Amino acid sequence: MKTYAHCAPLLSGLALLLASTATPAFDLNQAWLAARDYNSDYAASRADLGAGREQAVQGRAQLLPQVALTGSYSHTNPTQPAGQSTYDSSGYGVQLSQPLFDTSKYSAYQKGKIASQQAETAFSAAEQQLIVDIARAYFDVLLAEDTLAATRASKKAFHTQLEQAKTAFELGTATIIDTHEAQAGFDAANAKEIVALNQQEISQNNLRRLTGLDASAIQPLQEQLPPPPAGTLQGWLETATHNSLALRAAEQALQFASQTVTEKRGNQLPVVALNAGYNDNRSNQAGMIPVTRGSSIGVSVSLPLFAGGGINSQIREALAREESARDKLESARRQLREDVRKSWLGVTNGAALVRAQQQLLVSAKSKVDSTKLGKEVGIRTNLDVLQAEQAYYDALTSLATAKYDYLTARLQLGQVAGTLDQQQLQEVNAAVRH
C-alpha cells in the first residue's frame, strides 16, 4: 500500500509530462499560422488568387500576334468523267494575325488587369478575415472556459451553502427556507454548468475546424491588456479611405464595369488587323503544277453595319451595370465611415468597459465578504449571501467577455481600415500568457 502511495505522485507527473508532450500549448499567433496551412477556405482563396492573376495574362494575349500552323492531306478518286487516275494533295501553311485597331480586345486587356487586381484584393481580404476569425474562435474558447470555471465555482459555493443550511436546519438554528434557497441556487448553477459545457464543446470544435489544433492546449490571457491603438477617429477614417479593401473592391468593380462599356461600344467600331502567311501545297494530279509556294501580307478592315440591335442592347446593359457599380461604390463609402466609427467605439468604449468591469469585480468581492460577515452577526440572510456570490461570479464572466470583446475590436478596427496584418495580431497576442 505504501509502494502505491509513493508511486502515485510520480505516475501523475509522468502523465502530465506525456500529455504536455502530446499536445503542446499554442497561442493566438500560432493558431493563425496553423490556420494558414490547414484552413480550406483560405486555401481556396489562395487558389482563386492564382486563377485571377491569369486574367491579366489572357487579356494581354489578345493584343499580341496570333500565329497558327495549318496542314492538310487528301486522296482523291475521281469517278466522272471516267478514266481519270487518283491523285494525292497535301500542304501546310503558317498564318499570322496582329490586331492594329480593336477596341474590344484592348478593353478585354484592361479588364484582365482589373480582374487580376480584384483577385489580389479578394485574397488580402481573405487573409484579414482569417485573422479575425481565428481571434474570435480563440477568444470564444477562452470565454467558454472562463464561464465554465465561474459556473463551477458558483456551483461549489451553492453546494457549500446547501450543506450548511441543511445542517443548520437539523440543529434548529435555521428555517427550511434557507435550505430551499440554497437548493434553488445549486440547481440553477448545475443547469448553467450544462450550458457552459455545451458551449465549450462547440467553441473548441470551431477552433479545431479552423486550425486543426487541439483546443484543450490553448493559452489563456494575462492580466495586462494592450492599450488601444494610437490615433484619432478622424485619423482612422482617413486611413480607411486610402486602405479599405472593401472600398478598393468597389472601386475595382466600377473600373471593370466602365471597361465593359468601352468594350461593348467598340463592337460598333471598325477592326483593323495585319495578316501575313506562307503556304506550301503539293499535288500529283495530272496536268497540275506539282508544287506551289507563296507568301502574303496585308491589312484587313471590318466594320459592323447591323447586328439586329444586339450591340445597342449590350451597350445599354453595360451602362446600367456601370451605374449600379457607381451606386455600390458610394454605398461602400458610406458604410465604411459607419464601420470605422463603430469599430473605433468598440475599442475605446471596450477599454473603458474592461476597467469598469475590473472595478465591479472588486466591489462584488467586497460585497460577498461583507454579506458573509453580516450573516454571522445576524443582519444578513442566507439568501443575501447567495445573491452576493452569484453577482460576483457573474462579474467574473462579464469581465472575461469585456476583455475578449475589446481584443477582437482592436483587430476589427484594423480590418475595417484595411491595415490588419501580423504585426497587429502580435500586439494582441502579447496579452496571451506564454
Explain what the structure shows:
The protein is α+β, with helices and mostly antiparallel strands. 70% of the residues lie in helices and 12% in strands. It has helices spanning 2-22, 28-38, 40-61, 103-171, 176-211, 233-243, 245-266, 310-376, 382-417, 422-429; strands spanning 66-76, 87-101, 271-283, 291-302. It has a four-stranded antiparallel beta sheet, with no helix packed on it. Helix 4 (103-171) packs antiparallel against helix 7. The chain starts with a helix and ends in a 5-residue tail after the last helix. Mean pLDDT is 88; it is low at 1-21. Belongs to the outer membrane factor (OMF) (TC 1.B.17) family. This is Outer membrane protein. Its main location: membrane. Residues 1-25 form the signal peptide.
